[in-house]
Structures
1.
Amino acid sequence: MLEVGERRLELWLADQTAFDVTLRVLGHRAAAQDSDALTIAVPTDGQAAQVRGLLDEIDPNRTAVVRFAVHDTTLDAVFLALTGHAPATTTPKELENV
């Protein structure tokens, strides 16, 4: 499970087999997963050496991971994690009436 405020490496896998194998390799390090979207999130410090090492470990043949991204936590994500619901949005029109 990802902690609030933690960076994450999000992986998009090529297919269900790549997803299953990657999940097994990561074990408890897999913080979030979505088998329908074929994505797995892993906590990271965001440093290139760590990301490169992790990609080499889970995909040495460079065929399983089709895309990846390092994400910082947004304030909306922190709010959602702490409250269990998304923050309300205010439109410019609503602000005029304040």
2.
Amino acid sequence: MKRDFVEFHGLTGRRSYNFKESREYLGGLAKKVQELAKDEANWTAEKRAQWDRLNSEYDDLLAEIETEEKRFQTKCKAGEKEFLAEQRKRPDWEFIDGKNPWRAMTCDEELFDERGRTQRALRPDESLTEALSCRDESSADFERAGLTLGKFIRATIVGARSEVERRALSEGTDSAGGYAVPTLLAAQTIDALRSKTVCLAAGAEIIPLFSDTNDFAKLATDAAPTWRAENAAVNVDDPTFSRVQFKPFTLAVLIRASRELLEDSPNVDQMIRTSLANSFSVELDRVCLVGAGTTEPLGLFGMANVTEVDMGTNGAALSGWDNLVTAVGALEDANVMVPSDAAIVMAPRTKTAFGAMKDSNGAYLTPPAALAGMRFLATTGVPIDQTQGGASDASSIFLGDWSQLKIGIRTQMRIEVLRERFADNYQYGILCALRADVQCFHEESMCRIIGVIPA
């Protein structure tokens, strides 16, 4: 859909938006939709067709704008001074938050294996969506057309509204009657998870998985160097390598929504994406930290070689910063360099207890030098009903080098529409499933404090 506010810049070979005019046009569409809605009781067939057309155009344009805004902010490469100087001369040049972050689009070759697949953990500044659309022509086509996971899900329910949606549904239909989500759309969900999952905010990394079993090597023990005399032979000592194997478990969520909402709402796409990201992220946090390792991944609480600080036989309440300082010391004893801005992850109850600690004069306690600069993060993924001796209300705290914790996620997702189960309430059920596993490449780099009970 071409409009006069979308221009072509030959310098980059890409379209560049005037975001202000795009948003103004979008606002005009929203007003038209709202005006029509006021008289819904008296709609004619023509009015209904107009409603459908405006809603479809609104959804398409919103996805298009979001895609271009994200591209504007993230597809960047430092040092494009000539390009920036040229673009600043243009009257329609846009800035975001007072800054100009545009840089030319590039592909990170090192991110992929010989088959064009991502085979290493993504850095915090890397987008899997960007990487796949950069390398995969089919994914790039979907992205350019503004196809999103929310639109794909809606299309599985009410039918395709565009050629690209029909193509995605055709390619994604599976033998079990559901839909395999196109890789790009699954990547969008993974990127959304990264922004909402506390363990990832702490520094854990995602590894995209492309098969049911994925093996990675890790260094178990280093080679030991020795001092030697002049002309003496160099001592030979080999490092020991071991294997980390990701075998994804299935994580599923069921979303219910009224048929009217899915068919008529212009922002249902965004709501579906938000709901999925929120529900998946909370559960990923939980299994990363306390997963049981049976029908779900094993979390840090159950890993044998994670450094441990015990609060006592029946647990104990926090009385200061000593337990955290002890944990940092235990990691350093294991030759772990704890980052100065390391994250300390805990239950909201525990974070509140730290924040409420006061000295004898009633002044709030500040962290000691050993903890200065560290980040205190809270997630409901840390339970507050663990058993510690006679206590049944214990909790845990986790800290260390979070980059050693890896979350492997399959780049395939599956969608199944439940049409009959909730029909009596005139609702659809949307069953979404992805597969993931959790591994720690160096367990000794992480520490858990167990047996934290309330005061």
3.
Amino acid sequence: MEKHQDRVIEEKRGLDIKINKLSAFMGSDTHDSLEGAERVRLHKQFEAMQAYSNCLNERINCFPKEVKP
């Protein structure tokens, strides 16, 4: 596997962990206590992170079969 492919795979893993943590936070009482504008910004951040993860996934899916995780 190429080093840059390893980095893409690790970047996606790390990003997906952050997405899961943010998703859990968005379902918490702490999130619910935030002002509306901050909740909107967090939702925008969440959507951007998901889009970024999807982009990384597309790149990984184009790697040669022998290097896919």
